[in-house]
Amino acid sequence: MCRFLAYSGDPIFLDTLLIAPEASLVSQSHSAREAKTVVNGDGCGVGWYGARSEPGLYRGILPAWSDANLASLCHQVEAGLFLAHVRSATSGEVTMANCHPFSSGRHLFMHNGQIGGYEAVRRSVEALVPDDLYGLRRGNSDSEAMFLAALGHGLSHDPAGAIAAMLRTCLRIQHANGITQPLRFTAILADGQTLHAFRWASDDRPPSLYWRQLDSGIAIASEPFGDPGDHWHPVAAGTHMTVAGGAARCEEFAVLETQPA
Amino acid sequence: MCRFLAYSGDPIFLDTLLIAPEASLVSQSHSAREAKTVVNGDGCGVGWYGARSEPGLYRGILPAWSDANLASLCHQVEAGLFLAHVRSATSGEVTMANCHPFSSGRHLFMHNGQIGGYEAVRRSVEALVPDDLYGLRRGNSDSEAMFLAALGHGLSHDPAGAIAAMLRTCLRIQHANGITQPLRFTAILADGQTLHAFRWASDDRPPSLYWRQLDSGIAIASEPFGDPGDHWHPVAAGTHMTVAGGAARCEEFAVLETQPA
Amino acid sequence: MCRFLAYSGDPIFLDTLLIAPEASLVSQSHSAREAKTVVNGDGCGVGWYGARSEPGLYRGILPAWSDANLASLCHQVEAGLFLAHVRSATSGEVTMANCHPFSSGRHLFMHNGQIGGYEAVRRSVEALVPDDLYGLRRGNSDSEAMFLAALGHGLSHDPAGAIAAMLRTCLRIQHANGITQPLRFTAILADGQTLHAFRWASDDRPPSLYWRQLDSGIAIASEPFGDPGDHWHPVAAGTHMTVAGGAARCEEFAVLETQPA
Amino acid sequence: MCRFLAYSGDPIFLDTLLIAPEASLVSQSHSAREAKTVVNGDGCGVGWYGARSEPGLYRGILPAWSDANLASLCHQVEAGLFLAHVRSATSGEVTMANCHPFSSGRHLFMHNGQIGGYEAVRRSVEALVPDDLYGLRRGNSDSEAMFLAALGHGLSHDPAGAIAAMLRTCLRIQHANGITQPLRFTAILADGQTLHAFRWASDDRPPSLYWRQLDSGIAIASEPFGDPGDHWHPVAAGTHMTVAGGAARCEEFAVLETQPA
Questions:
Q1: pLDDT tens digits, chain B, 261 residues: what are they?
Q2: Residues of chain A found within 8 Å of residue D138, distances taken between Cβ atoms
Q3: What pLDDT digit, counting tens, does each position of A10-59 carry?
Q4: Glutamine amidotransferase type-2 domain: from which residue to which, for each copy (chains A, B, C, D) (predicted)?
Q5: Mind telling me how many Å the CA of A166 is from chain C's nearest CA?
Q6: How many angstroms separate the Cα of C183 from the Cα of each of A79, C111, C199, C245, D149?
Q7: Backbone angles phi, psi at C41, to 5 degrees
Q8: Which of B40, B231, C206, D115 has the fewest CB atoms within 10 Å, counting from its CB?
Q9: Which of B95, B123, B137 sits opposite A95 (nearest CB)?
Q10: What is the rounded distance in angstroms from the CA atom of residue C176 to the CA atom of residue C166?
Q11: Residue C247: its H or E element
């Protein structure tokens, strides 16, 4: 289980959310040190939008807790839209190319979860990546392949539709290969303007997701952080959440064709 | 153009060939410092056979000239069969997964050259990798894909036939995609007993290859090193060279079907 | 708290002890994943003696659990004397130069513990390093400084005496600077023939140390590993343990001058 | 010989100077690939001033030419004051702690040159670092030690005086140790407002330095880059150059006490 955080709102220094708070994302990378549950020490990454149309991207293979460049960058950079991720590897070894977020043009994408039985279906999932994006495939994780496949399904003009179509195809591939392990997908997509968060799983047990209204904007995260009194809203399974213009909107996110009544 | 070296013979410390000689492989990684032609600073690797059936493998993303682990390993390890490589990236970024040698079971493989226009045919070349080996695909270089494809063509029981079949298929893919850039392939394969060296190119200009009889065994390398008086034999284009049991044998290596007279 | 292991006996593949057993050292690097107590993800290292008078040394900044080179090396290398360490940084950031073991000539050294208040006394501790060894100082950890200082106190001919003299001097430096935090020192030294293990602390609470008689030799480790039925002997605080020729001997290790009655 | 660049002026994207131009700093890291003189592949770094009082800092051990994070950062970050460096190691191995620029509070510092015979005088040079800054000493290069020593000589309120005093002391240490190799020092210091460039050597042969008036500000660099028609001013040996408020001013920089006539 990875951990991630996204923010949309007034420009703030990245460390305001990523480092300063109690149980911040960077501290979650080594939270197990303090005898909590998990370590997310298999690399880290942060992507942010500035004056360019394309986002900035920093990814590293060290655990976030010991990455001096990450700390300096988060202290220095201000942004009104950013994503950050600390990884606990499921598929794909620890290498920069497997670190989140992934980027393509103005898009950033990060994911928590996995395609069950991925090794058996990797080739079929990669076949979903359209030819003109295939050169972007650098690592061997399921997450990067899902992102590129979703781009091929029209991610830039219909994010929810493209993600749903991609997941539907992955499910079919799993089924065709006799895989019964679930497909779990909690993910965040950004295009420079809007954050799209998805929480869905084929077994209705997607990785956790929360959001919170801050003074300066809206944060979405794998788990609450900050002061104990802060109010975090859990995001229900089967949700597509959109954050733009200071407002968050949740709607149902269905992947499988609804059955006739 | 990468640089590489392979050795077969009595066990010797790896640094005897890789570090100690004048113009050794490690010094070739930064030879340009001394105002020669090229830098091979995009990672390095060494593979050797010991008491296990599988070879040992060390690969790193630092230039060989500054890799302290490589230096210590070469000073400490003795082997009668080993391969070493310093990389100058053509396709695929600088990451461990793109460093040579590549390994699978008892095989080691390293390559100098490239598939011209690789980005356009990468997907088709990767399609040559058989399903049961697809999980070994970790990077995005043409070299790794060619190795895995050759394994699928029967590399373990007919090395020259499998390499030729793989190259033939790659040529067809290039032609089908209208690529006129050459396919160049100077490579070394080891299986724990025998070294196979190949020097071939579709335009008859494969990267250079030399071999030399040492007191303790036989060395094959991209370029001569050691004392100026040392006698190195150039390996002709279109050659498959086999080194085993202290003897080197060269035979013609034809990739394209010979034409009837 | 770091974790380490040393072995002396018949040559064995390193992974026999470092990777294969239940709760092996490499798994201890991420044991917190399984909800135990600590993570030791701040780099790793292994040193071993082969045919050279100097040991081989591999150190890396990735957590041991994701270090593919470490895994391959431990699978391939056989040795009758080796040390391995997974780090949880106390003083000194995560960099190769701060990874254990440290080496000098035929010696290897690794340490678990710390000089309390080290930042305030670092300069004085480094002043203990003799001029001819000062060039070996590469990192900024207390452990490396203690090793180099002990070398200056005659580590090569009187290991216990040199370690005691070094610790005594460090204690004086702490006292002279008004530091009341303890000096804790559980460490292993090897010279190619003999293992010396020390467990001592100024507050009588040194990091844990255990040893065990295996079929092939003797293992010393920060904590027991392997089968639950395996019998590990705790090493008492204030002990200098010597392992050579298949035998382990424990004697009292006193740092402070005993007071007259 | 390292290569570096500094800029002061209107805010620009860093890649405008560091990557886009012909013979840019990043291309200088591997210029030898194109058969020029040198490789500067021993790590790289960039420091810039933004909205914080302290600068942002990114340093990496890969050659600049293959560092994807550096490229993204330079594409994304805009600054009116920044420094960048590509290293060719003289003293100190390739590690982040030895990469330039070095930082302390609001200061950034980078250096090209060396203290001749440094290994013999390292301890004495490090002794110049004041106690309260000693904890900042992370690597083992002469450059970092000179920066920290200059801070102790009052770098923040009298840059030229502090640098001269530091160099004078280093010269005395060299002489006291019988070292006849020169002390060469071409360096740039920034405090968030002003750039100070120094070009000096005990043998009057300091590494090269040039500056140029751009449309947006002033660039100082180890060697000219950009269009052949661009006019670069060489900076004479024995110069202290100050850049602030859009103006460059050069004055004599004397290290040794002038002799009475």
A1: 799 999 999 999 999 999 999 888 888 887 633 334 468 888 999 999 999 999 999 999 999 999 999 999 999 999 999 999 998 877 778 899 999 999 999 999 999 999 999 999 999 999 999 999 999 999 999 999 999 999 999 999 999 999 999 999 999 999 999 999 999 999 999 999 999 999 999 999 999 999 999 999 999 999 999 888 889 999 999 999 999 999 999 999 999 865 554
A2: none
A3: 999 999 999 999 888 888 887 633 334 468 888 999 999 999 999 999 99
A4: 2-261
A5: 30
A6: 45, 12, 11, 32, 30
A7: -105, 15
A8: B231
A9: B95
A10: 15
A11: strand C247-252
DSSP summary character for residue D96: G
Of D2, D44, D74, D99, the catalytic one is D2
Hey, which chains touch C, using 3+ CB pairs under 8 Å?
A, B, D
Count of domains for chain A? 1
Active site residue B250: no
C195-201: strand order across its sheet? C102-104, C107-115, C183-190, C195-201, C239-244, C247-252
Strand partners, C188: C110, C197
The three-point CA angle A104-A251-A40 to 5° equals 50
- String of b and e for B160-183 (b: at least 16 CB within 10 Å)? bebbbbbbbbbbebbeeeebeebb
D199 at interface of B, judged by CB pairs closer than 8 A: no
C32, C35, C68: residue with CB nearest A33: C32
Q: Is residue D121 part of a domain?
A: yes
Q: Determine, yes or no, domain membership for C115.
A: yes
Rounded distance between C-alpha atoms, residue D255 and residue D261, angstroms: 17
Using a CB–CB cutoff of 8 Å, tell me whether C122 touches chain D.
Answer: yes
Beta-carbon contacts of C200 under 8 Å, excluding residues fewer than 6 positions away, are C167, C185, C186, C206, C237, C238, C239, C253, C255
Instruction: Give bridge partners of residue B78 from the DSSP assignment.
Output: B13
* Alpha-carbon gap, residue B168 to B176, rounded angstroms: 12
Q: Would you call A35 an interface residue with chain C, using a CB distance cutoff of 8 Å?
A: yes
- Give chain D's radius of gyration (CA, Å): 17
CA geometry: angle D92, D97, D101, nearest 5 deg:
100
Question: Could you tell me if A41 and A33 are in contact, meaning their C-beta atoms sit under 8 angstroms apart?
Answer: no
Q: Are the C-beta atoms of D197 and D243 separated by less than 8 Å?
A: yes
Whether B47 and B108 have beta carbons less than 8 Å apart is answered as yes
Q: What DSSP designation does C26 have?
A: H
Q: Which residues of D touch B60 (CB under 8 A)?
A: none
Whether the Cβ atoms of residue C140 and residue C91 lie closer than 8 Å to each other: yes
Domain for residue A75, yes or no? yes
CATH number of the domain residue A248 falls in? 3.60.20.10
Torsion D168-D172-D177-D182 (CA) sign: positive
* Interface check D216 vs C, CB under 8 A: no
Q: For residue B95, tell me if it sits in a domain.
A: yes
Residue D196 CA neighbour count, 13 Å, CB half: 24
DSSP conformation class of C237: S
Coil vs helix vs strand at D251: strand
Record: contact C94-A61, CB cut-off 8 A: no
Q: What are phi and psi of A236, to 5 degrees?
A: -70, 155
Q: B55 and C77 in contact by Cβ < 8 A?
A: no
Q: φ, ψ for residue B235 (rounded to 5)? A: -100, 125
Evaluate whether B102 touches B144 at the Cβ level (below 8 Å): yes
| Interval D137-146: pLDDT, tens | 999 999 999 9
List, for residues C183-209, the tens digit of each pLDDT value.
999 999 999 999 999 999 999 999 999
Element (H, E) at B200: strand B195-201
C48 to chain B: nearest residue by CA?
B76
Which residues, 6+ apart, have CB-to-CB distance to B16 below 8 Å?
Answer: none
What is the domain extent for residue B17?
A: 3-252
